[in-house]
Structure formats: structure tokens, C-alpha cells
Amino acid sequence: ATILALHGPNLNRLGTREPGTYGAATLADINQRLHEQTSEAGHHLLTLQSNAEYELIERIHDAADEGIDFILFNPAAFTHTSVALRDALLAAAIPFIEVHLSNVHAREPFRHHSFFSDIAEGVISGFGAQGYELALTAACRKLR
Ligand code: DQA
User: Fold this and answer.
1) What are the pLDDT digits (tens) for 42-58?
2) Which domains are present in the chain?
3) What whole-number distance in Å separates Cα of residue 6 and Cα of residue 96?
4) Any idea of its EC number (predicted)?
5) ipTM of the prediction
């Protein structure tokens, strides 16, 4: 199966961005680990990070056309703002897991609402970079 890891705004700054909140791992570290874990499971991984909402929307549209089987998505700040990304996922009808490095529920109230959680297969929040491994494990189980 083909899995898409989609990373939202500012996640290209991981490693230097608020390391106390988001950890020391860079996005390259996270993607490399995901690539290893995906190929060990016999699947194929594609990745995209974008700071632009429309690029993430268009990637989701293309994912539907390409027949991508599963998405791991950290919408970052768009979690709390983007009806358009929610609608793109509903239109694509591709199962996805919502991932956050930090525990959004232990942070500011504006981070407690997500436009994605109720349409996600599940949500992983607060386990740092390991959250992506946990999400991929869950995705592979669902893809069996
Ligand atoms: C985040 C949490 C969001 O609230 C924040 O805007 C981010 C990252 C996380 O991974 O913890 O950019 O999605």
C-alpha cells in the first residue's frame, strides 16, 4: 500500500523550533524513520511538507486520484483553522490519522479544537516524534 505523510506549516523548522515543545528531531529525521518503518512493513511512503494551505489541499486531491491508501497528517496550526483541509479530506475519502508532536490538550485553549479529529481514524498527540511511529504502526495494522 502507499502511505502519504503530510506535514503542515512550520514543521520544516522542527529541530530548532521551540525544542522544549516539539523536541530535537528534525523533519528529515522523522521522515527517514517513517521511510525505514514503511519499507520494513512492505509499504511505500510519500511525504510532503508545506507552509501553504492550498498546496496541502492540492496534495490531498492528487492523493485521491493516485489511489493513496492512507494519510498520516500533522496539520500543525491549520488543525485549528482549516475547514478547507477538512473538506479536502472528506472529498478524498482517504482514511487518515491526525498526529501532533505536543499534547495540544495541555496547551492554550485555542489548540483544543481540531477541524480533523472527528473525521480521523484516530488522533495521536503528545508523544513527540514517536507519535509518527505509533501512527504508522496503527496505519499498517489497518491496512492488513
Ligand atoms: C502541532 C500543534 C499545533 O497546535 C501547532 O500549531 C503546530 C504543531 C504539534 O505537532 O504539536 O504547529 O500540530
Assistant:
1) 999 999 999 999 999 99
2) 1-22+32-58+65-70+79-102+116-130 (3.40.50.9100)
3) 10
4) 4.2.1.10
5) 0.99
